[in-house]
Design goal:
Elements: E1 2-6, E2 10-15, E3 21-26, E4 29-30, E5 46-47, E6 58-61, E7 64-67, E8 80-85, E9 88-94, H1 97-102, E10 107-116, E11 119-128, E12 134-136, E13 138-140, E14 143-145, E15 157-162, E16 168-174, E17 180-188, E18 193-195, E19 206-209, E20 213-219, E21 225-230, E22 235-239, E23 248-255, E24 274-276, E25 281-290
Antiparallel strand pairs: 1-2, 2-3, 3-4, 5-13, 6-7, 8-9, 9-10, 10-11, 11-25, 12-24, 13-23, 14-23, 15-18, 15-20, 16-17, 19-22, 20-21, 21-25, 22-23
Length: about 290
């Protein structure tokens, strides 16, 4: 079942599985990838309690080794709809006997979608309901049609903006095991913008760390903006499965990421992980604006 809200400018729909956004429209135009399984069977999954892959598919905590699927389990489990208004949807997920087999922490994970004008704001709220510190990562993975109305991905450009003028950026690349490797790709920008090339994602996702970038905008062939993602995290990813002819690009604000190649430490030692004290709350938002 889909839950839809509209403010007369934009319309969104989300489902209980993963509390995933499955439609994002301005007027009659769909901006979100529609989960064709031949290319990518998702639209905008929520990543929790991990982002990306773990080295060997496992992590270690208090002397035990746990298996975990890429991007965590939240995207594949049923949330509950906890609140709904004309412009607001809220979903909630709590730990269960099944989640504790792979992630031994009590938690409450809430996801809200709020629409105002042409902007959707997504908010995550993680509450540690246990009696010991919990460790987690958290992220978004929305895939935007690119361009939004016909054409090729390579017709589009990406604009980066932040606290300073950006002339050149570098990004980590991913190895065959889905882990961060030492190799990086660098891009020279013109007015903060780079054209999407046919091999831009030949090494899987691009991961940007401590870049100062606070917004990523997609532009069409005529350099007209059609979607912008604003965020406050110091790490984000870009991804498109170009080898499958994907007509979309994912812009992914993250609070955490996959393991670095060779990492074998404890859960608390993972790079970019988050620690949350008992009864504490971790709340973060990002926004998507349609043009």
């Amino acid at each position: 079942m889909q839950y839809e809200i509209s403010n007369g400018v934009i319309t969104i729909a989300a489902v209980l599985k993963g509390a995933e956004l499955v439609s994002l429209k301005k007027g009659d135009i769909e901006y979100l990838w529609q989960a064709d399984p031949a290319v990518w069977n998702r639209s905008a999954p929520n990543l929790f309690p991990f982002v990306g892959k773990l080295n060997g598919g496992v992590y270690r905590y208090e002397g035990k080794t746990y298996c975990m699927t890429p991007h965590g389990f939240a995207r594949d489990v049923e949330f509950a709809l906890s609140k709904r208004t004309d412009t607001y949807l809220q979903f909630a997920l709590s730990d269960t006997d099944e989640t504790r087999k792979v992630y031994p922490f009590p938690f409450l994970f809430e996801i809200t979608y709020t629409i105002t004008g042409s902007t959707l704001t997504q908010t995550w709220r993680v509450t540690n309901t246990g009696k010991r510190a919990m460790y987690f990562s958290l992220g978004a993975h929305p895939g935007f049609m690119c361009p939004v109305q016909g054409g090729k991905l390579t017709d589009c450009s990406i604009r980066f903006s932040g606290v300073k003028k950006i002339e050149r950026i570098s990004a980590h690349t991913i190895n065959a095991a889905g882990l961060v490797q030492e190799r990086t790709d660098s891009f020279t920008l013109s007015d903060g913008t780079v054209r999407i090339t046919a091999d831009m994602f030949s090494h899987d996702a691009l991961i940007f760390e401590n870049s100062g970038i606070r917004a990523v905008t997609l532009l069409d062939k005529s350099k007209k903006e059609f979607v912008r993602v604003d965020f406050d995290t110091d790490i984000f990813g870009l991804w498109s499965p170009q080898e499958r002819g994907a007509p979309f690009l994912c812009i992914e604000p993250w609070y955490g990421r996959c393991d670095r190649a060779g990492f074998s430490g404890e859960l608390s030692e993972r790079e970019w992980g988050n620690e949350l004290a008992p009864s504490a709350v971790f709340e973060k938002s990002f926004s998507i604006t349609l043009f």
